[in-house]
Here is the input.
Amino acid sequence: MSEIPTFKQIQKAYLKIRDKVHRTAVLKSQKVNKRAGGELFFKCENFQKVGAFKFRGATHAVGELPEEKAQNGVATHSSGNHAQAVALAAKQRGIPAHIVMPENAPKVKVHAVRDYGADITFSKSTQEARESTLETVIDDTGAAFIHPYNDPNIIMGQGSAAIELLEDQPDLDIILGPVGGGGLISGTAIAASGFSPDTKVIGVEPEVANDAYLSFKTGERHPIQSTDTVADGLRTSLSELTFSCIQEHVDDIVTVSEHEIIDSMRFIWERMKIIIEPSSAVPAAAAFNDKVNIENRKVGIIISGGNMDLDTLPWQNFEN
Here is the structure.
């Protein structure tokens, strides 16, 4: 297993990529604060290039590849945001990108990956199918694998979002972030531990895809048992690396229901007038539904992305 990245490494990664990524806005809303009972600061990575925080990690990881490893391009598997991020990072470096996407990936994300010039191979939606298909693609192309989260360079890049958030709002009591494979929450927690040690970092994930919650509570890594969540970006299991990061630096993990995710997503659309995807609504749902005590506290929330298929909004056919 790779070593857990350090705060200094995340700082260095940020210096390398900050001219290539957007410094995204931190937004507030009185209506949102009133509902939550605390003061919320939203780090809006839905305004990042490719519409998600994933561009930070992909830019760093692709940029760190030695020339001899990069010459055949890069490859990865992803339901969408990491796919777009790797595709654009590869395009900017001038190398090919080969992306394995599950057949149920949102159309908006598939179209975006194609727009960035990547080659797409579809697979079944299970983790095993994605990984086996990727192995075939790498055998055929010789491309370098850019893992969505089990890569120190990815984690270092993702941590840059928390550095910006804490520079803009240094007195946060808590940071809430979504948990899928664990790259974002790992980078966030490591960055916070060095930049603002008193700030607690809490991960949030869907109840129906609660592998990180079970792993954190039991101290043993649990594979994901269900991908049947509206939060399509959180349908992956922790890796050994991200689990180790979480064990060392994350203070807690809580879960939210599908109804809470969709209700929170719609509330943010309506009140803040910003487009967020379901995965981004997961940490907000924890704040809105008393999963974390935020009363009279300052809370940073990582809005991880905003890539939505506007023809299939989750509240249109959702039953409580």
Q: What stands out?
A: The chain has 13 helices and ten strands. The mean pLDDT is 94. The two ends are 42 Å apart (CA to CA). The chain has two domains: 7-52+152-303, 55-145.
